[in-house]
Amino acid sequence: MASDNKRLLIERVEITVPGLPPAMDGFRIAQLSDLHLEPFTTVADILQSVHACNSLKPDMVALTGDFVTNNTRAAPVVAELLAQLKAPYGVYASLGNHDFWSGAPEVIRALNEHKIPVLRNETRRIRTDLGTLWLGGLDSVYVNKPDVRKTLQDWKQTQPLVLMMHEPDAADVIAAAGVKALQISGHTHGGQLVFRGKAPMTLRRARHGKKYLAGQYQVGALQLYVNRGIGCVGVPLRIGCPPEVTELTLRSPELARA
Question: Max alpha carbon distance in the chain (Å)?
Answer without folding.
Answer: 52
